[in-house]
Design goal:
With 334 residues, this protein is an alpha+beta fold. Helices cover 37% and strands 15% of the residues. A hairpin with a 2-residue loop joins strand 6 and strand 7.
Length: 334
C-alpha cells in the first residue's frame, strides 16, 4: 500500500445525499467509532483529544485553536515521513479543510474526505452519554451538522482526491492486506530473510520471546537435537527442539531441568513445554512436571533400577524360571 494521508472531513451528514463516485477499493481508510482516549496509540489524534491533553476538557471549544496547533505539528511530522494519517474531526470550517489539504499537497500524498452519514438528532442524542467534559452543546452540534451538509457538494472542488462515505469502506480488505503482508515478511516471501527457524519459536512461545531467543548450534546437551536459549540478564532457560515426538513425527520443545526423582542426581532431565505459560510455571514452581524424564532415572512410569535388574535376570533364564514356577504350583496343591 502506498503511503497516503487520510484526512477526515466530517462525522455527520444526513442519509440520502447524492454521493460522488468513489473507487471500489479506496486507499485504506478508517474512522474510529469513538474518540481515542488520552493515551491511545493512533496515527493522529482528534482536536477533542488535543483539547483534553492541553485543557483537561475535551469539550471546551475555546481550546480548539491551541489544540489544532498541536495537531498540525503532529501532522507535519507524519507527512514528512509519508505516513498514513487520520485526522478525526468534524472539520466543518472551509479554512481548516484547506490547511489540511495544503499539508497533504506539500508532501505529495493524496487526501481523502471521510464522512459518516448520521442524522443531526442522533448526533445530539449521543452527547447525552458523554461525560460533562466531552459533551458538545446542542447548538454547536446542529450548526456543525448544517455546515457539513452545505459543504458536501463542493468537497471535490476544494481539492479532495476522494470523498468516501464510511458505509462504503471495504473494512476487511485492508485488515487482511496488513495480515498478509506481515505473514509474507515472516515467511521471507517478500524477498527478505524472514523469521526462518524462529517461526516455530514464535508460534509456540509468542512474539515477546523472540528478542530473548538464541540458537546454540553445535551444543551436545540434547543428544544431537537442536538447542535454544532464552536469556534475560542472568536468568536463562535451555530448550531442546524435538522433531520426532513419540515417534509420530511431531515437533515440540523440552526444557532442561533437574532430576525430580533423586535429590543427589546430577543428570540432565527434560520437561515438555507447550507454551510460554509452561515456561513461567517451570521457572517459578517448586513442583516437578509429571512428565519430566531424567536421562538416568527415566520418567515417572519407569520402575526402580533394582526391579529392572530383577526382571532382566528372569528373562535371561526362562527355563529356570519355568522350573521354579512349577515347584511353586506343586507346593501349593500338596
Amino acid at each position: 500500500m502506498n503511503p497516503n494521508a487520510i484526512l477526515t472531513y466530517g462525522q455527520v451528514l444526513p442519509p440520502g445525499q447524492n454521493r460522488h463516485p468513489i473507487p471500489r477499493r479506496p486507499a485504506s481508510c478508517w474512522h474510529p467509532e469513538r474518540t481515542p482516549t488520552q493515551h491511545s496509540s493512533t496515527p493522529a489524534r482528534s482536536a477533542s483529544t488535543r483539547r483534553s491533553n492541553r485543557e483537561d476538557d475535551a469539550g471546551d471549544q475555546a481550546a480548539t485553536e491551541a489544540a489544532v496547533t498541536v495537531m498540525h505539528a503532529a501532522l507535519k511530522a507524519r507527512m514528512a515521513r509519508r505516513l498514513t494519517t487520520v485526522i478525526s474531526d468534524t472539520n466543518t470550517d472551509a479554512g481548516v479543510r484547506k490547511s489540511l489539504i495544503n499539508a497533504a499537497r506539500a508532501h505529495g500524498v493524496p487526501v481523502v474526505a471521510l464522512l459518516v452519514a448520521t442524522p443531526a438528532d442522533v448526533c445530539v442524542r449521543r452527547q447525552d452519554v458523554r461525560g460533562p467534559d466531552r459533551a458538545v452543546p446542542e447548538d454547536v452540534v446542529r450548526r456543525q451538522h448544517a455546515d457539513a451538509v452545505a459543504a458536501f457538494p463542493q468537497l471535490r472542488g476544494e481539492g479532495f482526491d476522494h470523498v468516501v462515505f464510511a458505509d462504503h469502506i471495504h473494512r476487511l480488505e485492508p485488515f487482511l492486506q496488513r495480515a498478509s503482508d506481515a505473514r509474507r515478511r515472516d515467511m521471507g516471501w517478500d524477498g527478505g530473510a524472514g523469521l526462518g527457524s524462529l517461526l516455530l519459536v514464535r508460534r509456540v512461545f509468542g512474539p515477546d520471546v523472540l528478542p530473548l531467543w538464541t540458537w546454540r548450534d553445535g551444543s551436545d546437551l540434547a543428544g544431537g537435537d537442536r538447542v535454544g536459549e532464552i536469556r534475560l540478564g542472568k536468568d536463562r532457560l535451555l530448550l531442546a527442539l524435538r522433531t520426532n515426538v513419540d515417534g509420530e513425527g511431531d515437533t515440540g520443545f523440552d526444557l532442561l531441568t533437574c532430576c525430580p526423582y533423586e535429590d543427589d542426581c546430577t543428570a540432565r532431565a527434560w520437561q515438555p513445554v507447550y507454551s510460554v505459560t509452561d515456561l513461567l510455571v517451570a521457572h517459578t514452581s517448586d513442583r516437578p512436571h509429571p512428565d519430566t524424564v531424567c536421562t538416568v532415572h527415566g520418567g515417572p512410569d519407569d520402575v526402580g533400577q533394582e526391579a529392572d535388574d530383577h526382571d532382566r535376570a528372569w528373562d535371561d533364564d526362562p527355563e529356570g524360571r519355568a522350573d521354579l514356577e512349577a515347584q511353586a504350583v506343586k507346593a501349593i496343591s500338596a
